[in-house]
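Repro:
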Amino acid sequence: MRAVKWVGIALAAAFGARIYYVREMIAALVIFSVFFGALAAAVSVIWVIDWLIRRLMPWIEARMARSARWAIASLRKSFAEWDFGRPVEYFRETRSDIQGFSRLSR
């Protein structure tokens, strides 16, 4: 009778250990699923932002070129007024050494 009791206790302990192991594995699965889900969401957000930037870049470049032309024209006008009324053409001819903006100013 005593042997049956110890066999029953051993079986219960083995069964309990299996249930504990399964619960641990399920908990680990849930934790890693949440982690990888958050990682996938972050990568997806970065991918969408990159996609939007690539789609909007021609529009942004066009607006920036327009703004640059406006800024250069305003600066030339200001410089012309500062330099005792010399015309803007004077600065266009003498300040053509600015290579990057000469294309935008025309």
